[in-house]
């Protein structure tokens, strides 16, 4: 006979395990959805723009540290050359004094005062004025030369040591600022990657359209530059419209904001300081109503952004990472003052 036993039912324990597992899976899925909500396109753009602005602030500080490093390297090199030349002069002086001592020995021994000629530290001995009276004029003059050379060398070595430490600190600061810039740009890329490919393409197209519109159709009015220098600088900058913003770049194919203004004025025969805050003091400060094409224009309270006034309220500048050199309305940024070179 066929068996009529009822099929075995799952135990209460197994049912409970399955139920708890399923519930946990639903809960985790729900938490994951809450933990990583879809980024709003407008919110992402605002955050990215903020990161780009912070990266530009850091870039100006990086540029300043890099300029300081270059100056310190030259100063240290010059000091080390001076120390080397000074040591050579000192060695020659000592050789000459050694010959004098040898001659005295051959004629009857070295006077106790002349033993000083071979001392490594005649400076201490020379502090005793009575000693000088025991030396011939030639001997005293030679000793004074050695003492003076030793003092100079000691001072130069100390100065070189201080400059070397300053250089090491500057290089360290430079590295930190570089990491900060790269970190902010990487975070901006991560935010952009939360958008779909279609959304990213739409943002890029909008940015490009803005650049094309501002650069090709900018109404610059009829203002004329105040000087030939300003006219030449603005004309040079116009040739770089469309060049990419690259942090730390000074041209000729890419620029950051102060890199563009510095390069443009260099073409006009004027050497500006490297960073925007220093360029802000390279000429006469003027108000917005006094601006003429080619004047420098500073933005933001800390003056971390700079461009060239192009006329009719327009600035020609290297805007930010991810954008190219272009015209833009000055109303898009908090204007501080102008600078006439």
Helical element count?
Answer: 9
Structural class: alpha+beta
Quick one: how many beta strands?
Answer: 6
Mean pLDDT across every amino acid position: 78
Shape field:
elongated
Order the strands across the largest sheet as they lie in space: 1-6-2-3-4-5
- Please provide the ordered H/E string of secondary-structure elements: HHHHHHHHHEEEEEE
Q: Summary?
A:
The protein contains 9 helices and 6 strands, in the order αααααααααββββββ. With 341 residues, the chain is α+β, with helices and mostly antiparallel strands. A hairpin with an 8-residue loop joins strand 4 and strand 5.
Commentary on this structure:
- By secondary structure, this protein is α+β, with helices and mostly antiparallel strands.
- It is 59% helix and 8% strand.
- It contains nine helices and six strands.
- Strands 1-6-2-3-4-5 form a six-stranded antiparallel sheet.
- Helix 2 packs antiparallel against helix 5 and helix 7 packs across helix 8.
- The relative contact order is 0.11.
- The N terminus is likely disordered.
